[in-house]
Amino acid sequence: MSVPFVVILDFDGTITTSDLVVALTTRVHDANRDIVNKVNRRELEPRTGLNILFSHLPSRDRQLYEEYLRHLARFRSGYHRFSAVLKDSHIPFYIVSNGLDFMLDAVLGPTPEDGPWRICNKARFDQPSITIEWQYPCQDPCPGGCGLCKYQVVTELRERHAAPVVYVGDDITDVNGAKHADRIYARGLLAQMLGQDGVGYTQFDTFDDILSDLFTVTEVINND
Ligand SMILES: [Mg+2]
Ligand SMILES: [Zn+2]
Q1: CA-based, 20 to 30 A from 141: which of 71, 147, 212, 214?
Q2: Domain around 80
Q3: What is the share, in percent, of the chain residues with pLDDT greater than 90?
Q4: Which ligand gives the minimal distance to the CA of 140?
């Protein structure tokens, strides 16, 4: 069945109002704040930064982390409505995160059979501290260092569904993916960086902002 477009949503700071990777890893290990700042200033690649952040989280405390995330997470306004409209419209819809699977599971519960589907890294708890099994490693022409390469994800989903990709994100780890999407909704650092690089995007605050724009835009991107 042909679809008008595919939607990719970042998780931390996009679906949720705060970045849960930053919140959890800095709460457990205060000095992780320096690592986050270095990644945001592009002095450290996201993949390297994430490896360091999670290396300070003892595996034995998994349950505490999950409780903390469930307690902390807030959904951005309009998310559940947005999700329901996409399902009713049979629009393929993916949550794509450079975070770890146990974090998304803690906040969202198990993945529903009819989606949205999740693409994220896998956490391992069989060492003294959390280690990361990376999904979607970088390939040309991505400049590299992503961790989970959102550029690869955008490319693959566009081919799989033979449809334009709508990208929604907020952060530095969204830049490579967003730049290769057909339509971008951005906020936060992502919006700032796209602006600096002269890439067009639509600013959003709530998911209702996106919904009111998205279906009118479909015609535009399909007629390009
Ligand atoms: Mg984010
Ligand atoms: Zn990459």
Answers
A1: 214
A2: 6-223
A3: 88
A4: 2
